Amino acid sequence: MTYRYEPDNYPGRMTLLPDSFCPADGTRVTAESLAWCCPVCRGPLDLDFAPTPAPLKSLGGRVNSLWRYAETLPLGAPTVSLGEGRTPLVELRDGICAKLDFVMPTLSFKDRGAVLLAELALRLGPRQVLADSSGNAGTSIAAYCARAGLPCTVYVPEGTSAQKLEQIDAHGARVQVVDGDREAAAQAARQAADEPGTFYASHAFNPYFLHGTKTCVHELWEDLGGRLPDVLVLPVGNGTLLLGAALAVAELFGAGLIDRRPALYAVQAAAVAPLAHAWEEGAEDLVGVTPMASTFAEGIAIPRPPRARQILRAVRDSGGRFLTVTEDRIRHAQLDLASQGLYVETTAATGWAAAREGLLESLPRARLRPNGGIAPVVVPLCGAGLKTGPART
Fold first, then answer.
1. I want to staple 13 with a disulfide (CB 3.0 to 4.6 A). Which of 67, 70, 77, 195 is the partner?
2. Beta-carbon neighbour count of residue 121 at 10 Å?
3. Which residues have C-beta within 8 Å of that of residue 49, sequence separation ≥ 6?
4. pLDDT tens digits, residue range 102-138?
5. Does the keyword Lyase apply (predicted)?
6. pLDDT tens, position by position, 327-386
């Protein structure tokens, strides 16, 4: 497909949308379709889109949001932006920096992907927008649908934090509480998503979401002067942040803007760790059935992530690995971050729980050497503590 850019307040305006395709069987879906999954295998879709990032020196003076990376985004000239992106990078200790992605309009990194889904929905003109979430994605979709003037329903599981439910409701979205766990909420939403005129704003299935989350790494690259850290430590449930990171790394490497790819370290709560289990088994997909269990890391408690194969492959190709953290480590990591002035939700603390206890010792020594002052390890902190409160024993 051919793309045409025209002058605007943003670096570019895309006048044509890319088609989607199924990475499993190659089935294609037209850009104008409301189909949320592959019509053959019902799997998630990817975009037929291979952008070239702009050189570092051309970014000066651009809009101070994720839309400054317009050449890499499948949509341009946004109408629903809330100024999302461009979050700070601060040092923690021992060569580890935190990317403060909870400093967002809805206090979650999910705003990066939600703004693209709302923008896409606005252009496709559905009768209704649906989403499913344990909280953060739902609050983001609700906020951006409110901004776009789109009716929105969010399916959430029992036990979703009251703070997140209040936030969804405040944005005017309809909350549909589903009896059961996170997977039950997803199944209920997917059944409703097949109704005519429905746009399923799924952060797990819709590829536009990944092209939003990838801007986290583009920001790191810009803020670190055209380089990336040796290691990214990322909490993983549905894998949207990790897969977005892999997209950005591939774009920057393919354009010759970096000469080395960072290792992606994926972190799961030990209580619900289907991907870590598959990794330990050397499998290319999920192995067996992972039962749902109670965990502080509710945002990544996903027993069957739809993009499991892609997540495992991305970690393997990067030279990274999977790590698991116990409930006690999550609780202590949240308290430790708070003692440093950073109050994050319990799910967001999982990356620091892994990084602060043993991660550096497991890395090759060459990866520990600072490169021109760049911290070897970056941990995104993805959600604010106000969303869940402190972890309680």
1. 77
2. 25
3. 18, 74, 211
4. 999 999 999 999 999 999 999 999 999 999 987 889 9
5. yes
6. 999 999 999 999 999 999 999 999 999 998 765 555 544 354 444 455 699 999 999 998
Q: What is the DSSP string of 203-250?
A: TTT-HHHHHHHTHHHHHHHHHTTS---SEEEEE-SS-HHHHHHHHHHH
| CB-based contact 194:200 (threshold 8 Å) | no
- CB within 8 A of 239, min separation 6: which ones? 266, 275, 305, 307, 308, 310, 311, 314
Residue 281: Cβ-neighbour burial (10 angstroms; 0-12, 13-18, 19+): exposed
Secondary structure of residue 92 in the 3-state scheme = strand
| CB neighbours of residue 289 within 10 Å | 8
Q: Are 68 and 76 in contact (CB under 8 A)?
A: no
**What contacts 318, CB < 8 A, 6 or more positions away?**
246, 249, 261, 262, 263, 264
CA atoms within 13 A of residue 209's CA, in its CB half-sphere: 26
Choose among 96, 103, 161: nearest CA to 368. 96
Q: What is the CA radius of gyration of the chain?
A: 19
Residue 358, burial from CB neighbour count under 10 angstroms (0-12, 13-18, 19+): exposed
CB atoms within 10 A of CB 66: 27
- End-to-end C-alpha distance for the chain, whole angstroms: 54
Q: Tokens 């909490």 sit at which residue?
A: 235
pTM of the model: 0.93
pLDDT of residue 152: 97
3-state secondary structure of 164: helix
**Side-chain half-sphere of 202: how many Cα atoms within 13 Å?**
30
- Say how far apart CA 363 and CA 367 lie, in whole Å: 7
Write the Ramachandran bin of 256: left for phi over 0, alpha for psi from -120 to 50, otherwise beta. Answer: left
Per-residue confidence (pLDDT) for residue 360, from 0 to 100: 52
Look at strands 152-157 and 128-132 and give their pairing. parallel
